[in-house]
Specification:
Strand order of the largest sheet of chain A: 1-4
Largest interface: A-B, 18 and 18 residues
Structural class of chain A: alpha+beta
Distance between the termini of chain A: 78 Å
Number of helices of chain A: 10
Largest sheet of chain A: 2 strands, antiparallel
Helix content of chain B: 25-40%
Radius of gyration of chain A: 27 Å
Strand order of the largest sheet of chain B: 1-14-13-17-15-16
Order of helices and strands of chain A: HHHHHEHHEEHEEHEEHE
Largest sheet of chain B: 6 strands, mixed
Oligomer: heterodimer
Number of strands of chain A: 8
Helix content of chain A: 25-40%
């Protein structure tokens, strides 16, 4: 009886020992050598795997950072982690972190239920991408918000919500990490990842309608009618295809209020502070 | 018992609703203003040849084909050009259009307006193709593919059969049916013209068995001409699809990504063939077409010969106006057509029907979860799995996954959505999938 136990222990113990030795040698022989730097960079990343940096995920971004020399490193940026994370990675690499202005997603449309009342009833699938294919939408504006919330579903950070009274998506600037998912999903390209202007604040044209002024106004009372008034305030502002665009380089603190007040339809939005 | 042809895979049998089968084609009233889009075909928009203030006659060239895949556009009324600009079309999106204010009805002198049928074709294939091109003819079945490309074969391609598509499998539509009944001989002559351009002696006019009058007329007349035969097809939707019809008539299967010409076939809609007859033998460019105005909420349904550019609202007015029951206005058939948002939009070369629909049958129903019954895959005439495509679209899968599911081969017939017991709008998802594939 005792022999049986001893034999069992010896056989099992021997097998285990042999297996352990094989595994040990295999793990040494075929070890995947990972760059220490990649691991340390990956640890400081937010691990959202959102792809906002343009890489396939956080691991890919960490590898790119580890391999980068100083000039290529300046082009890498993790919008989710922001300046803090980039500084951390830069110090690991021994580079100086470059300053990037804070960015946030802005919706360039004010076609609320009141500004752009519905002229038809849309009763097909509740998806902007489908509605955009079928027609110009309930308001009749071919470039305006369709109120069906594909962007809200696409946002992984809970920064977008659909306002029930206006029907418009609202960006929560505190939660927005500028990953650009909304920009990609919106079939009408209404979102823009916009850096705040050099001295802080933000001023932009909240309209994408390229129809002639009179037609645009018929669809929406807050449409840009290409009246050119804003172009007289700052030369950087250009009107193309019946639509004005204010580049982010225009100083919002200096011109913001004036631009907002000059717009006859109220299509220009001025925010003194981007976050908070 | 005559053999009846049909395609083997998938298909459905929706209610026919062919309420206008017995309504003769009547000329629609001339509108006060026509707006003619410069892009009524697949390919590049035509180059605008007129400016505001120009005087035009019926049949005057107003926009010239820009490149090979493009088509000429002709004025459909005589009068003065009042606007050349972006005007919201049927979908509400702006399209380049030419507005012409009607003054009288003066035709270009070159157009032969006599009613007699010309039976002699003394033209070379090249002359025929040139005349088709100058007539601005495009595939009138709905795709809008410029016809001259189909009739002028590249040297390395060989075609042995011309299929004239007189199936009209969409419910409600009867424009092609009426044309086959009233202009049977012209259609046969048109088929012979295309035969000659292709250098073949084998045209098959495919007609659905639910159009007995057209079958009778065409069969009797086709016996008088060499190289034109009539084949009767069993009723099934979407028999009028190019792939399905080729399969039904010849038994050949069109591989994915290939054109009918690669397997020796050319398919032309009867409307197109009639337009070819008029353009080649009567010098009359394509500026009017037969439009069915119908629908379960239409007061006086009928078939109209309408000038291109006639506002849709004017045709609705002539057939009794909008009643309160109308919930949607659809251009084309109820299966593949599009709901329009703007009745000021014009009739184009591709407008086969205007349907005024309402009631439970045509309403969207609340979609529930997929129960994995597989009915959509059974009825899909392209042999796809619509449920899998929908799932891939919902999960935002990469275009590669959609390509592997062959979503690009979807013919957008709508059988899947029609048959789905959970009311899932599968066709919409397939359309998104096709869009995603095209993006990359």
């Amino acid at each position: 009886m005792n022999d049986l136990i001893i034999i069992n222990m010896l056989v099992l113990g021997g097998t285990a020992l042999a297996a352990a030795m094989i595994l040990y040698f295999v793990s040494k022989k075929f070890a995947v050598r990972t760059d220490e730097m990649v691991i340390r960079i990956a640890e400081s990343l937010p691990q959202a795997n959102c792809g906002a940096c343009g890489k396939a995920g956080c691991a890919d971004f960490a590898t790119a950072c580890a391999r980068a020399d100083e000039p290529t490193f300046a082009n890498l940026y993790c919008p989710v982690g922001g300046q803090a994370v980039m500084q951390k990675i830069a110090s690991l690499k021994g580079f100086a972190a470059t300053d990037k202005p804070a960015t946030v997603a802005v919706l360039r449309c004010q076609g609320t239920c009141r500004n752009a009342p519905a002229k038809i009833v849309y009763d097909a699938v509740s998806s902007c991408r489908i509605a955009n294919r079928i027609s110009s939408g309930e308001s009749g504006c071919p470039d305006g918000c369709l109120h069906l919330g594909d962007c809200v579903k696409a946002c992984k950070f809970g920064a977008l919500s659909l306002d029930q009274t206006t029907g418009m998506p609202v960006v929560n600037a505190a939660k927005c990490v500028s990953c650009g998912a909304c920009v990609k999903i919106c079939p009408r390209g209404l979102f823009e990842i916009r850096p705040q202007s050099p001295a802080g604040g933000m001023v932009y044209v909240a309209c994408r309608n390229r129809q002639k002024g009179a037609v645009a106004r018929k669809n929406c009372s807050a449409a840009c009618i290409a009246c050119q008034k804003c172009t007289k305030i700052n030369d950087l502002i250009k009107v193309e295809d019946n639509l004005s665009y204010i580049p982010p380089t225009v100083d919002a603190r200096e011109f913001g209020a004036e631009l907002r007040d000059s717009c006859p339809t109220g299509a220009i939005i001025y925010k003194e502070r981007v976050r908070g | 018992m005559v053999k009846k042809y049909t395609f083997p895979m998938g298909g459905i049998h929706p209610d026919k609703h062919k309420i206008t089968s017995a309504c003769p084609i009547t000329a629609a009233a001339l509108p006060e203003v026509v707006t003619i889009p410069v892009k009524q075909h697949i390919g590049a928009p035509a180059k605008i040849m007129v400016a505001k203030g120009d005087k035009v006659k019926v049949g005057t060239l107003i926009a010239d084909a820009d490149g090979i895949v493009s088509a000429d556009v002709h004025s459909s009324v005589s009068g003065e050009v009042v606007k050349v600009e972006d005007i919201p079309g049927a979908s509400g999106y702006g399209e380049k259009m030419i507005s012409i204010k009607t003054e009288g009805d003066e035709w270009e002198p070159s157009i032969d307006r006599s009613p007699e049928i010309i039976r002699d074709i003394n033209l070379t294939p090249e002359e025929i193709v040139t005349k088709i091109r100058e007539g601005g003819i495009v595939g009138m079945g709905g795709a809008g593919y410029p016809t001259p490309i189909k009739t002028a074969l590249p040297a390395d391609k060989k075609v042995d059969v011309l299929i004239v598509n007189g199936i009209e499998c969409e419910p409600f539509l009867t424009a092609d049916e009426r044309l086959m009944i009233e202009k049977a001989e012209q259609i046969i002559m048109g088929a012979r013209v295309i035969n000659r351009a292709l250098g073949i002696q084998n045209a098959v006019i495919a007609v659905d068995e639910n159009k007995p009058e057209a079958v009778e007329k065409l069969t009797a007349l086709s016996k008088l001409y060499v190289g034109v035969n009539v084949k009767v097809c069993k009723t099934k939707y979407p028999q009028g699809g190019e792939r399905q019809l080729i399969n039904a008539i010849t038994g050949r299967e069109l591989p994915s990504g290939k054109l009918p010409v690669d397997i020796g076939c050319i398919v032309q809609n009867v409307g197109t063939v009639f337009a070819v007859y008029e353009a080649v033998l009567k010098n009359k460019p394509l500026f009017e077409r037969v439009v069915t105005v119908s629908g379960n909420c239409c007061r006086h349904p009928g078939n109209y010969l309408a000038r291109i550019g006639t506002p849709i609202s004017s045709l609705i007015e002539q057939s009794g106006g909008l009643s309160d029951d109308v919930e949607k206005i659809v251009i084309g058939g109820p299966m593949m057509g599009n709901t329009i948002v703007n009745t000021a939009a014009p009739v184009t070369k591709l407008t086969s029907g205007i349907l005024l629909l309402g009631g439970d049958e045509f309403r969207k129903h609340e979609a529930s979860s997929c129960i994995r019954c597989g009915k959509c895959a059974v009825v899909c005439p392209a042999g796809l799995r619509p449920f899998a495509i929908r799932q891939a679209v919902c999960f935002n899968d990469p275009a590669e996954t959609l390509r592997r599911l062959h979503a690009g081969d979807c013919i957008e017939c709508g059988c899947c959505a029609y048959t789905c017991p959970a009311n899932i709008p599968l066709l919409d998802y397939c359309k998104i999938a096709k869009q995603e594939i095209r993006k990359k």
